[in-house]
Amino acid sequence: MLNSPYLFDLKNISLVIILGQILSGCTGTSVSNQRPAALVQGPPITDIFTPFDMALACLKGQIRKDISFSVGAILDQTGKDVVTNGGSGKMVTQGAGDMVQSALFQAGVSVLNRRDPRIIESEARWGIRDARQIQTSDYYVTGSINSLDFIPGGGFDVQVGGIGPSYSQTRIIVGLDLALTDTRTSKVVANVSLQKQIVAQDYGVNVGRFSGHTLLNIQLGKGEREATNFALRQMLNFATFDLLTQVIPPATYESCRAQIPKEFGTLNLTRSSVALYKYQQEKLKSDNSAILNTKTIESEGLLTPVGNSEDYKDQKLKNTNQLDKDALPTKQKESDLIVNPDEYDETNKDKIIKYISLQHNHSSNTRSTESTKQISKNSSDMKLTDDERNKTKSNDVMGINPDNVENYWMTQESK
Fold it and tell me: Are residues 215 and 259 in contact, defined by beta-carbon separation less than 8 angstroms?
């Protein structure tokens, strides 16, 4: 009777109950109601950093300070809710507008707070604030997070003799649209659409064994999930950067876009990407033409080496090693789409959008060269007629007035 298997099972059950009581006593039956419970301290608080922050910070000083921006409504239009043990709520963040405002501030532009105008409106209504003194915005950003789709996942669970691994993966795709609007005319001057796949995957190992009449089952696992709202912040920062670069020349933001790691984000079909692609192609074509002209002059013996002969050979070798246009790698399929993008009317863009990028001052060497040219110009002005002198003066004014700067949106033909 003492060796009965039922007695053996009873002992095991009793052992499990005793161990459960010991573990619950260690981890935590609640402390006395008269004393506060000890709080668990997790990782330290840090500031939020995304891979696109360096590119945004690179735009500081590239955009005029007298151009002001504000952020309107950026709504959650996905219509997706989630229900958990703690309650129900939206699946994506409801603070996208504040994220865009932080991105604009990080880019160094003049930002006007339009996120909550109730205080300004109340003070103006009470008569303690003159509403006419409130600064007007030149551009504002609006948009929405408008797609959240679940992509069918996959996985496997293999066990041989009760032992084996398991793996599963699920994905959701999130999309958003942002637009930059001219406040005076309500014309959309920049627009961007982005999407991202958010991945979740689980690994596991299952072990199941019988010890006599007792089943021993052990499961070990690990889960990896992208933070949905942090991924949305990255998308919003990237979209804000692209909106700003659509209204400044490609030469201004070329170095800033190069600071975005390719593995975190890449754009091929937005207007800033198309403009940058064309600019780089024109610059490459110009460099190749200059190299070709140098080689032609050298072959005809018209170029005389100056200085040390070894330096001349090194310079010649350097020019020879430049990439030739025919030796360039074949363009990717995405690039083929932007060689001849859909035509759109650009002739009237200069009447819609301000040219908001700063004109940087020339270096000291350039100024000294310009001063030398000015001396020669003054001596030659003595010989000009009155009509020619007035024409020259008007051209100088065109170069000084920032409102008369050549517009970025103008086509090559209109220039």
Answer: no
Q: Is residue 161 domain-resident? A: yes
Domain boundary among 244, 269, 294: 269
Task: Tell me if 353 is assigned to some domain.
Answer: no
Instruction: Give me the residue label for tokens 């103006």.
Output: 124
Whether the CB-CB separation of 408 and 358 falls below 8 Å is answered with no
- Identify the CATH number of the domain in which residue 100 sits: 3.40.50.10610
Cβ-based neighbour number of residue 3 at 10 Å = 6
Same domain, 378 and 243: no
More confident residue, 13 or 232: 232
Q: Mention every residue, 6+ apart, whose C-beta is less than 8 A from residue 345.
A: none
pLDDT class of 192 with cuts at 50, 70, 90: very high
Q: State the residue range of the domain holding 284.
A: 270-340
Tell me the residue type at 308.
Answer: N
- In terms of DSSP H, where are the helices of 215-303? 228-245, 250-257, 271-299
Take residue 61 and report the two structure tokens written for it: 């000083």
* Same domain assignment for residues 264 and 277: no
Residues 6+ away with beta carbon under 8 Å from 210: 216
Dist CA 74 CA 388 (whole Å): 54
Burial of 144 (0-12, 13-18, 19+ CB in 10 A): middle
Amino acid identity, position 41: Q
Instruction: Examine the pLDDT at 318 and tell me if it is beyond 60.
Output: no
In this predicted structure, the answer to whether residue 321 has a pLDDT above a threshold of 70 is: no
Task: Say whether both 253 and 282 belong to one domain.
Answer: no
- On the 0-12 / 13-18 / 19+ scale of CB atoms within 10 A, 182 is middle
- Quickly state the pLDDT bin for 79 (edges 50, 70, 90): confident
Radius of gyration of the chain (CA): 33
